[in-house]
């Protein structure tokens, strides 16, 4: 199966971390590895959704997270491919660093 990836203005979305809002995988994190058009992207996480079979997802069904994996983005821009191990590492790093910090901040809420 050949997947055509549109490259105009898609460089800014490649490597973008997203949280899936709707569907069977709701609540899970994935990374954009391809842009089909202004409405659909290709997602992979390296575990359930591997790079050889990415999930086509509507942009309205994902929540953009303020994090872009530089390793994944560079690999996609240079070679057009990324390894599943690199995706797993990027997601694990993000969850360990950012999501854990958010949970710690929620407990205190700035008041004593």
UniProtKB/TrEMBL annotation:
CC annotations in GO: ribonucleoprotein complex; ribosome
Q: Does the keyword Ubl conjugation apply?
A: no
InterPro entries attached to this UniProt entry: Rib_uL2_dom2, Ribosomal_eL14_KOW, Translation_prot_SH3-like_sf
State the UniProt keywords alphabetically: Ribonucleoprotein, Ribosomal protein
**Domain of life of the organism encoding this protein:** Bacteria
SUPFAM superfamilies per UniProt: Translation proteins SH3-like domain
What CDD domains does its record include? Answer: KOW_RPL14 (cd06088)
What name has this protein been given in UniProt?
Answer: RNA-binding protein
The organism encoding this protein is Oceanobacillus profundus
């Amino acid at each position: 199966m050949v997947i055509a990836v549109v490259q105009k203005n898609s460089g800014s979305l490649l490597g973008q971390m997203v949280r899936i809002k709707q569907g069977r995988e709701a609540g899970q994190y994935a990374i954009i590895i391809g842009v089909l058009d202004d409405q659909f992207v290709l997602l992979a996480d390296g575990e359930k959704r591997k790079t050889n079979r990415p999930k086509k997802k509507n942009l309205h069904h994902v929540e953009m997270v303020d994090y872009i994996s530089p390793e994944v983005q560079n690999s996609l821009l240079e070679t057009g491919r990324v390894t599943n191990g690199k995706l797993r590492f990027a997601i694990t790093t993000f969850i360990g660093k950012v999501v854990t910090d958010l949970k710690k901040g929620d407990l205190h809420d700035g008041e004593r």
